[in-house]
Design goal:
single chain; OB fold (Dihydrolipoamide Acetyltransferase, E2P); 18 helices; 29% helix
């Protein structure tokens, strides 16, 4: 025989199960401790909740033994370690793993097989032993359960922490997909919140005796113990019943049996010396039949005439109050009607004389400006607060129920609707990127790109608020709770036939729909939109922004340059439908042609000269003057200035035109080179004196250099002393010693000029004196030495 005991954590399952097992001689099995043992095993092996596969593997390898009510893990007793804070923190999540539950259930069934056993734990009556001979569901309020756990002193948590932990575990247990916390239909339900241990045990024993008395008597013989016979037990229970009736107080809720029904009254036997009678009106349309069990309130034990007074109406109110209290405890919704709007919210009629307050912030999922539309609305609520000490105070929450209801309907939508199906919805609101569609309390998005195959600027041009429309479901993401809808998918995608109608190189007409920093989008037909990059606007113009050449709404001719069907992209060109002026630039601007044009931009390297709109030539700084070294073009040129230039290079392929100013006149270096050869004597003016020599300007504004070693023919004169004799503006004569027109280099020398003159003088002297006896070079030098001596 199996006695299965179920219920939430902390309800007293373990204690009652141990008492029953001990007094009946049954084997005691606690499934909750097995869960805790496997949780302890996971903690000790460092396995987290994020790895359920490994956790299940470790659980399957663990050796669980259950002997004399003690639990052993891999051979070691662990009862003292099961109800610590670290185990309490995650045992509910561990027990929610379906594969792990199967392992635990297998352990429990193995232990109880062929035995008389008392098994307790979650889902014992519904999953593990659905055919158990005795099923009991023990319950208690979260406060009562937390107080019991706190009193054990096995956890380091405070009372409030234990209570929150219990409530969190209840929530998890109620919502488990496998083995959720449920009450078996044929189980005895006991709320032990206000009962002593003996009272709970008495009620459980009474149920077992009435349902399986013969088996208990057999166990009595087998044990030869203090378990009373069935008759004795019946007598004790009857005495206990009478004592319990004597202990009833006026206002208690009791069960009564209908013994007679008349037009005006229903007579109820409550086990007392007289019957109570209830006006039939209290039952409304549901008049009970003889033999029915009816819950009533004991209004008065005995009147002056010896009768008891009971009330069905007050019983209904009390039962309803208990159901409301239970709904609050179990987090279940209740029904009510919004009666009227009051300060801060609404008053709600819950029936049976109960009224609640619904705050405006908890009345709807959306903010409420005016609550007229909610008056007389019959709907569901969650109980957020419930007080009943001095006066009933109920605070309700409709918004939370609506959110859960919306989640439920949304989940049903995801489970029942497939992508591609048609659904109906109502246009709820607009955004810049589309419209939200109400699909029955939850929203789907009709994106602006899914309203039409063509370009959409304003969502309101396609749908209006409050409109009921049919749409195609094109995308669903349950995890993100996202639903994408479409209007355009009711018609064929024009891209499917694009290649039949368009080819690369085709010139088409299109409408500019949108401008971006990098170009313009042009719609060539509804649903086919291409991009003309800003670089494809013009052959010659280089706009910084598309707005300089186009505006939305413009109709333009363009050429199809390329397309990508899978990506839905078309590349378009505007300049390709126009003549390229660069193709004829070599003809229009050949090398050598002279032009007068305007300077449009001056740079550090030169200046751009506009030849015509969109075509510029470049005047380099080196081409400004043959002789003047220009360091900054801005010294000689200004934007807007008109100057005469010559085309010195024209390349249409590279789109390059070079211009020159100095080429308008002959190169003075070439002219100088023709007029003066090596050794020629030139006149010049000193322009500057440096540490290394003297610069001299000669014919044609050409500047040459006399190095300091070439300034004097006197070998005894120091170079620096020679430099001191020269100043800017001084006229000098010098001989050409180095000339390179290509490099614009001219070298001059005074020393060479003097030496040359000396040689010429010597040559003349020698020629003149040959007839006079023949002087020699030595005689000449000797004579000069004599002159120095004389002087």
């Amino acid at each position: 025989m199996v006695i299965a005991i179920d219920g939430p954590a902390g309800s007293g399952k373990s204690t009652i199960a141990k008492m029953l097992a001990g007094r009946l001689g049954f084997t005691y099995v606690n499934s909750g401790n097995i869960y805790r043992a496997l949780t302890l095993c996971a903690i000790e092996h460092g396995v987290g909740l994020d790895d359920p596969g490994r956790l299940t593997h470790e659980a399957a390898q663990a050796r669980i033994d259950y002997t004399d009510g003690q639990l052993f893990l891999d051979g070691r007793p662990i009862d003292s370690e099961l109800r610590t804070a670290r185990v309490d923190a995650i045992v509910a999540q561990v027990s929610a793993i379906p594969a792990l539950r199967e392992i635990v259930n297998a352990h429990v069934r193995r232990i109880a097989a062929g035995l008389d056993a008392v098994v307790e734990g979650r889902d014992m009556t519904t999953v593990v032993f659905p055919d158990a001979e005795v099923k009991i569901f023990l319950d208690a309020s979260s406060d009562a359960r937390a107080q019991r756990r706190h009193a054990q002193g096995l956890s380091g948590m405070s009372f409030d922490e234990i209570r929150r932990n219990i409530e969190m575990r209840d929530e998890i247990d109620r919502n488990k997909s496998v083995g959720a916390l449920k009450i078996a239909p044929d189980a005895l339900y006991l709320d032990s919140s206000d009962l002593t241990l003996d009272q709970v045990y008495a009620k459980v024993s009474e149920n077992i005796l009435h349902t399986h008395g013969e088996h208990m008597v057999t166990k009595e013989v087998e044990m030869d113990a203090a378990v009373p016979s069935r008759d004795d037990f019946q007598t004790q229970l009857q005495e206990q019943y009478l004592k319990s009736f004597e202990g009833l107080e006026e206002g208690d809720l009791i069960d009564g049996h209908v013994i007679q029904v008349t037009n005006d009254y229903v007579f109820i036997d409550v086990g007392y010396k007289s019957e109570g009678k209830i006006p039939a009106l209290e039952f409304g349309d549901k008049i009970p039949a003889v033999g029915d069990v009816v819950k009533v309130i004991l209004v008065k034990k005995e009147t002056h005439s010896g009768e008891i007074v009971v009330s069905k109406k007050r019983a209904d109110e009390k039962v309803y109050w208990k159901s409301v209290a239970n709904a609050f405890k179990e987090h279940q919704p209740i029904e009510g009607t919004i009666d009227k709007e009051i300060k801060g919210g609404f008053e709600v009629n819950l029936g049976h004389g109960l009224r609640g307050f619904l705050p405006a912030s908890k009345a709807d999922v959306q903010r409420i400006e005016k609550g007229d539309h909610l008056i007389n609305l019959k709907t569901m609520f969650y109980l957020e607060r419930l007080y009943s000490e001095k006066k009933v105070n109920i605070v309700l929450n409709r918004r939370k129920w609506m959110e859960e209801d919306i989640d439920r309907r949304r989940n049903e939508f995801f489970q029942s609707v497939q992508i591609g199906e048609t659904v109906k919805g109502e246009v709820k609101s607009f955004t810049s990127f589309g419209a939200f569609i109400d699909l029955g309390g939850f929203d789907g998005l009709l994106h602006i790109n899914d309203m039409s195959w063509g370009h959409v600027t304003r969502p309101k041009d396609f749908v209006r608020k409050g409109q009921e429309i049919e749409l195609k479901v094109i995308r669903m993401e349950p995890e993100e709770r996202r639903i994408n809808l479409s209007l355009k998918h009711f018609s064929a995608d024009p891209w499917f036939t694009f290649e039949e109608r368009y080819h690369v190189g085709d010139v088409v007409k299109g409408k500019v729909t949108k401008l971006t920093d990098y170009g313009a989008f042009i719609e060539i037909e509804e649903g086919i939109e291409g991009l003309a990059h800003i670089s494809e606007f013009s052959w010659v113009r280089k706009p910084r922004k598309p707005e300089e050449m186009l505006q939305p709404g413009d109709v333009v001719d363009c050429m199809i340059l390329a397309y990508d069907l899978q990506a839905g992209k078309v590349s378009l060109g505007l300049k390709q439908v126009q003549e390229n002026p660069w193709d004829s630039v070599s003809t229009k601007y050949p090398v050598g042609v002279r032009l007068t044009r305007k300077v449009v931009k001056v740079t550090s390297a030169g200046a751009f000269i506009e030849l015509e709109e969109g075509i510029d030539g470049f005047l380099h700084i080196d081409d400004l003057s043959w002789t003047h070294k220009v360091k900054n073009p801005a010294e000689a040129l200004q934007e807007g200035q008109e100057i005469e230039v010559m085309v010195i290079e024209s390349d249409s392929t590279d789109r390059n035109i070079r211009l020159g100013v100095k080429q308008l006149s002959e190169d003075p270096w070439r002219s100088f080179a023709k007029a003066y050869r090596f050794g020629a004597i030139v006149d010049g003016v000193v322009t500057s004196v440096t540490d290394f020599g003297v610069f001299v300007k000669v014919q044609g504004d050409i500047e040459g250099l006399i190095k300091k070693q070439d300034l004097s023919a006197d070998r005894e004169e120091l170079y620096d002393d020679a430099l001191k004799r020269f100043t800017p503006g001084m006229e000098v004569k010098a001989a050409v010693v180095d000339l390179n027109p290509d490099r614009q280099k001219l070298g001059l020398s005074i020393r060479d000029l003097v030496q040359r003159q000396q040689r010429e003088e010597m040559s003349r002297f020698m020629q003149d004196d040959d007839s006079a006896g023949g002087y020699t070079l030595g005689d000449l030098l000797k004579g000069r030495d004599g002159d120095k001596t004389n002087s």
